[in-house]
Please model this.
Amino acid sequence: MSDTALTTGIDGDERAAQTFPRLDDEMAQRVAGYGREETLPAGTVIFARGQRRVDFFLVRSGRIEMFETDHAGQTTVFTVHTEGQFTGELDLFNDREILVSGRTVSDARVVRIDRAAFRRLVTAEPDIGEIIMRAFILRRVGLIRHGRGGVVLIGLGHQRETLRLERFLVRNAYPHRILDVALDGAAREALDGFGLTEADLPVVLAPGTAVLRNPSNAVLADILGLTETIDPDRVYDVAVIGAGPAGLAAAVYAASEGLDTIVVEGLAPGGQAGTSSKIENYLGFPTGISGQALAGRAQVQAQKFGARLAISRMAAGLDCHGPAFRVLLEDGTAIPARAVIAATGARYRRLDLPRYAHFEGQGIHYAATAMEAQLCTGAEVIVVGGGNSAGQAAMFLSRTVARVHLLVRAEGLAATMSDYLVRRIAASARITLHTRTEISAFHGDDTLTAVTWTDRSRDLSVTRAVGNVFLMIGAVPNTGWLADCLTLDPKGFVPTGLRPDGTPAASPYATTVPGLYAVGDVRAGSVKRVASGVGEGSVVVQAVHGFLQPEP
Model:
């Protein structure tokens, strides 16, 4: 078995060599200093799928193969590590359940490095750490691309619950394959094989577990081992609530500066920015970067420095009356922390129209990524909104759809959208801008089939055969969990920068509750941009230090 088996479809030998690099003798000697050398007989299982906190192995001689076993007991080997190569992928940076199994093919001499020593290695040997980080990221990309080490999702492709589960897997970078029963004969066979009917859909098939019938996000996260165990007696230095750009930046800087840090996120890293198809005006990325890619890199960066991420754990409240804060979670557990950074961002507004809730999630979307784009290839779509997110969505979708109707209530885009996007939209042959226009009705039975919009300047209504609408209008702050702890402004955002007596606070991100800070879109008066959120998240850590260790 070739050691590049997992990279089938990856462009070029260089990318394959980066995915499965071979350390030279000098680097291997340095790595060996962080672990102990062992000789393992052929057939030794060094780790198995579903385990947590497995060790890192450097092969000195012999061979170690990575494999998976499906529901039928069939084993597939998809890569083999030989001398100078190493095991592992992104889950080595956290306490999640690993996705694959590993065993020796022949007698092997290895260097075994435990989790704590591995973190020291990555930090203390930056040249080696860079090679490992790049390899781990590319290995996860390979697993996702080829559906290795993941789950099978069976359902109706346009069904709300199927899309919810697919979106959860995609945004958490969890490998998976999708079988659409409306299009794929293999999906029907799988249903028959497990004694399932369409009434059970959607279902998730995960190795080693029972069939999951339409699980909630939290249940799926627990079954797949995405959820890290939270010790209720451990008091963190800082709890960051929300893993959007602001929250992830705060986590990176807090953890890198030695603070015991945990991040709580209800769905997946990235927040609203994570749903953006491409961000082109973020410093350092001249060709642009998708919101999901940016969030994924930031997540790995935070974990590299030791931050813990509690995914699929929604904050339901905050107890700020004891010696330490207690972040109350929806599942009834609590996380104690000496300081709290609120970075829960905002969500797009909804329309007050009949049958809106019925089509939400199956025709009405709040993100325009590759996943949503595949639902409407060759069709007409509607994008509602005049901000950058709407502009980016319109440009992204215009590459594959027949027509994008961009609806705005204003006279134009110049006041709310970056000029580079305004010019691209004006030049696009597939985007039609409708000003002073808003949606007035949705039509369809189970799924959305048509939409009526009204041009208010002419009092003219038009109905088009449209099955997918992308809404990106306004911002509603996610601050309900804070309501019992501090007073919000009239729009529900968090006021910052003032003490309870009205005098300026030491930090522009401090709230009236000592030790509680707010950054990013959730903060009153913030600039709703990815770069500003990242800046606020990085700067607030200085104030947290000052609170935790006040000067005499």
User: Anything to note?
Assistant: Residues 231 and 335 are 8 Å apart (CA to CA).
